Predict the structure.
Amino acid sequence: MFGWLKVLGSRIRGWLSMRHVDEDFSEELGAHLEMLTQENIRQGMTPEQAQRTARVKLGGVTQLRETNRELRGLPVIDTILKDIRYAFRTLRKNLGYTAVVVLTLALGIGANSTVFSWINATLLNPLPGVADQTRVVTLMRTSGDRLTPSFSYPDYEDFRDRNQVFSGLIASSIYPMSLTYNDKPERIWGTVVSENYFDAFGVKLQYGRGFLPAEGKVPGGAPVAVISYHLWESSFDRNPAIVGQKIQLNNYSYTIVGVAPREFLGSYTALRSEIWVPMMMHYQLFPIGGNPATRLKQRGDNWLIIQGRLKAGKSSEQAQAELNTLMQQIAEQYPKEHEGRQGIRVYPLWKVPFGATAFLGTVLMSLMAIAGVVLLLACANVANLMLVRGVSRTREMAIRLSLGATRGRLVAQLLTESVMLAILGGGVAVLVTLWTSKSFASLRPPSQLPIWIHIDVDRRVLLISLAVSILTGIVFGLLPALRTSGINPASAVKEESGSASGGPRKFRLSSGLAVAQIALSLLMLVFAGLMIRSFQKAQRFNPGFNANNVLLASYDLLPEGYTDDRGLQFHQQLLAKIEALPGVQAASLSDWVPLGFIFSSSTFVPEGYQPKPHELIEAGIARISPNYFRTMEIPLLEGRDFRVEDTRKTQSVVIINQALADRYWPRQDAVGKRMRIDGDWATVIAIARTSNYTRLNEQPDPFIYQPLYRDYLPSVTLHLRVSRNPAEFALAAQNTIHEMNATLPVFDIIELATRIQVASGIQRIAGSTVGVFGLLALALAAVGIYGVIAYSTKLRTREIGIRMALGANPRDILRLVVGQGIRLTLIGGGIGLAASFLFSRLLSSLLFGVSPSDPFTFAGVTCLLAGAALFACYIPARRAMRVDPIVSLRYE
Amino acid sequence: MAEGKSEILQGTLDLMVLKTLEAMGPLHGYGIARRIEQVSEEALQINQGTIYASLVRLLHRSWISAAWGASENNRKAKFYSITKAGRKRLAAEAENWERISGVIGRVLRLAERE
């Protein structure tokens, strides 16, 4: 039953000791021959005669040894090894050809492994350092039509205590905070977390411990912190005795209890947290509003991200169903805090519809698809090169066929060659990827967020590259291998000097491939053109405010221990000083900068508006000082700006945007209307023109501006409109702040125009990557056309010679050769344009301000490709024109 | 393929080698070949080398084993002997052979009568 296994085992043993087996067998045969000879002599033959007869009787020794070797060892592996050796020799003999093919494949495979390395580092490993990430999910709340990631602490507690599907439910929120160690202040991003954080994520600390259950019970009762490995290196000099040391966070003392492992960056994809503090310390970190437990008690205050680890055997569908029910129970219990229809959605980490995964998901998937097209193009190119080369190997194939090789053997040999080429190409591609994978970091937009993506060429990238290489080798090698080996040996040897014209039949496949190349590269060029145009449009986009000549600088008074009054005073005096600087045209403060990743919103009740059932009335919100609109150059359509006097002591006022006025008070004068917000009735004093708040291509969204001085906000961003290059004011702004407080850290000093580039991040990544792909495609197509035309021209040398001898002039020859190229280009171009029209709309999520069938782009890239094709034909055509009829007829 | 074509012949040769080893005890390749020729009364003139392919096949299945030893005239030679598994196999094959040859014989005789 297991006979074949026994045979295989025996064969493997034999193969491994083949040299020994061989010698053994030779000796055995020697003994046999001698015994036969002796016998023959005994029967009366002469020694010579005896020996000859013995050899005849035994059979051919060489053949016997060969058979023995085949029977004892593994002939398949021997054949493969032989093929590989042979392929190596062939490739080494044609270094130029090998280099071109390897390079072409390296580009194609490299494009794929690069994009894959990005996907691998983000979507496939969304939270490095977290154990078994496929069992971790993120919760989202549906509230009316809106999907939001934030929850209140009381809701979190209810979910945590009442669910049966999670082995751990984690709440967290990330903030910038001020760390002081050895009297050195530093601005870092830290996460406030539920105490089960490290356990539930399965993170084993490098040093010390995570948080204890007791540290999640009493508000203010857990002044402990875990620091990141990166912070331990950068700010604590890798001090091995760090656990137990005291630090200050926002002016409050904490004890370091642990250091996170190097790979763990936190619980939000692509964001690096430097420190983790128990949730119970929230008030000590941000002592705003009322008593220490306020934020932990307010059900209407949604500020937490909830993630959970599924229990073994529970699916995310089960989790979603159960939490949905729970959410509805909670909403019924507390209707005031849960307006609109409430529900829960559960997302796996890589699909989370906010943050980096939402941002990267579409881009990377599209890039992967486009990289696939590049690889296909490279395959077509190489297949054509091989076909052309196959023609010149006809004689070799014919000889091998007549010597008894089967067609299967020839195909196997040719495929071995192409797979080897592909693996060589893959090797080069991996080397290239080591460098290009890092380039993703340079596409990272400037942001105040601690964006950090660690991209490595790891084992998974290597394996995928290898798999892609082998597959590629088969894809581009099969067709040429079948074609090259499928010849009739008799006619092939003759044909060499045969047909006068290269013969269209022979080139049908080759021309077909050239057409495919042109079509694919036109498709790529259209994609690249659309992306680049989108990027340009996004760069020149008018967001509704003037981002030029504005400098931003941020500071946070919270850790400095200012009282509310003194803090307000600080803000106002600073503005006065800044405005007095020469060159400063306007200055203001705000707690928010548009078109970043950070956005806050608030529900409100517009006076006199009849809401539809379950309608959630919500708007984006920012707190601004007077002169904000002047600084940003956002026109007030009606009403007055905020004044310094608009504080808690006077009547509550707000400024709204046009979109809000149109939606809730249509065809009415919105100025003078009132809205209930933050538990107060506030009067609308002005309407600002609607601008862009979160994205470039957003619908006009309702927005509310509140006066900054109404509540004291310690953390603000200074906006300066200046008359010259804003960078020149960075030092002056910083000095002015330091005149008032010498040790106050000033951070995120950046031009507004630079800062809002985040908003065009998708277009930047897509534009630059696909742009490069497009150039590759153009080069590949040009090389492809050149290859086909040059080769067919070479084979037609004779025909051209005859034509010239019969009186054709060089211009006719030019027409002949270029005409062939133009025909190919026209067919390929037509197919490519049709494909582009069909497929370009798949990119629409990446495009901005450009229609997927933008005629300008289509026309432009078509001209570009046509130019490249003509040039590629012209070179062989010129060579053809110089053909000397006499030489050409003697040729061969 | 060459191997497929002569499957029956190969099987027959393997069977004869096994039988020879069972009857004669350990033998070298030459001895086996001679013995088969003698027993068949020189009717079966084989290329003696083919015996070795048969020996390899039997070795793979561990129906025979091989060891170096000294020949009659004190020359180094490889001796093959039948194993336990080989004897079992031989018994089964021999029975099978009897049955098949019996059937074939009957069919042929039947055909002659008609």
Observations:
- Confidence is low (pLDDT under 50) at residues 1-8 of chain B.
- The helical segments of chain B are 2-5, 7-24, 29-39, 50-60, 84-113.
- The two ends of chain B are 37 Å apart (CA to CA).
